Amino acid sequence: MSKIEKKIDLFDKISVLIEQARRKVAITINEEMVLLYWNIGKTIKEEIMKSKRAGYGEKIVQSLTAQLVPKYGRGFSKRNLWYMVQMYDTYPILQSLLGEFKGLSWTHIINLLPIKDNLKRQFYSLLCVKEHWSTRTLQERISSMLYERTALSRFPEKTIENQLKELKEKDKMIPELVFRDPYVLDFLELSDTYSEKDLERAILNAQLKLENKGK
């Protein structure tokens, strides 16, 4: 190995160390920020609950924004503060929040919070992490009603819950997610309400067609 090659090899090794450290720092910062936002949401909510006056919450948030933004920046805008309250309302138990949104940015989270259906929200948050979706990709998937187009969404709630748990814990991709694309369904000549037997039969037929074309 030449001196130049050794230098390049050394550079690559150090680059890997730097990138790994940066990723760890980014993850730590993100987790601390989400934790901070949850605590802020909790604190604001508790203050709002002290009064039954109409519009009290709005006044509290407006006042806080006026004080926080000049000192700490746009991250504490009125809209963002309400997202923090919403996050606490949705996840009053901190561990549930950290378990579901681990690895996701705040921008991802505020796109997920408006989803009222818990399983639907878990579906998107899980795939965000597994498939490394950008915020834009997440928005596109939600807008295109990806969840509603999956076979998974038509299962009983307990089944959906178990399937998502299996995907999360075992990192095992399930067929109901693999065949979520409407173009795939069209290719397999399946309707939106296909059964498991229909799917198996369609896959077999597609394989036979492809094999015959190859002859």
Please give a structural write-up.
By secondary structure, the chain is mainly α. The chain has a domain at 1-114. The chain is 75% helix and 0% strand. The chain is built from 12 helices and no strands.
What fraction of residues sit in β-strands? under 5%
- Main beta-sheet annotation: none
Tell me, briefly, the overall form. Answer: flat
Helix content: over 70%
Order of helices and strands: HHHHHHHHHHHH
Uncertain stretches of 5 or more adjacent residues: none
Q: Could you tell me how far the N terminus lies from the C terminus, measured between alpha carbons in angstroms?
A: 49 Å
* Average pLDDT for all residues: 79
**Secondary-structure class:** mainly alpha
SS summary, helix count: 12
User: What Rg do the Cα atoms give?
Assistant: 23 Å
- Number of E-type strands: 0
Key attributes of the depicted protein:
12 helices; mainly alpha; single chain; 215 residues
Task: Annotate the secondary structure layout.
Layout (H helix, E strand, L loop, with lengths): L2 H47 L6 H17 L5 H13 L3 H8 L4 H7 L5 H14 L3 H9 L2 H4 L7 H14 L4 H4 L3 H6 L8 H19 L1
Helix pairs in contact: 1-2, 1-3, 6-9
